[in-house]
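This follows on from our talk about sequence and fold. I would like you to pick a protein and set down its sequence and fold. Go ahead and set the record down below:
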Amino acid sequence: MNGKLDSYLESFITDRNELFTEMERYADLNHVPIMEITGINTLCQLLRLQNPKRILEIGTAIGYSALRMADTLEQVEIITIERDEERYERAIHYLGRSPYGQRVKVIKGDALDQSVIDEVHSFGPYDAIFIDAAKGQYQKFFNEFTASLNEQGCVYTDNVLFKGLVLEDEDLIEKKNLRNLVKKIKHYNQWLMQHEEFITTILPVGDGLAVSIKR
């Protein structure tokens, strides 16, 4: 979204507690990708409307989104996956300091490893799935874990506008890794919008939030 619009919208968001602002500072200083403020606030508002009881999050990072969701929904249980050791440990640290941490279970490992997949499915079914991990694997995450999504469930995917790079001709992007990632995100968006079993809307908030519900 436009930087001035983001700043304007963020000026209204003043109710984050000290732990959340500390986590935001840590993420900024240590280059940990967490949801942008307008994005997480939109996600939390959508969750208030949906009122899921169990959420699967793919990509814990330091636990920011999980704790924001747990703070929003008093009865929710969250299963979240993180493969990076340092981020996993930091998430456990923050969960231990939060009154909502006991409702969040972190599974350490790669979300596409079979042992992790089996464990995740064992905790299902889920009312909502939040995808915010390796962007090049979004379609695989979606296909694998929607098998454990309830009939009235919803899938939320972050970063689908990827800093506006989805608007660019990827062949003109110099860095190969970035070029390939943009191609994969564009492909995911197109695939998602044409999915026969889900209806999707992409919201231009934060870094782009896709909201997919079963047909």
In short: The longest helix spans residues 176-193. The chain has a mean pLDDT of 94. The chain is about 40% helix and 20% strand.
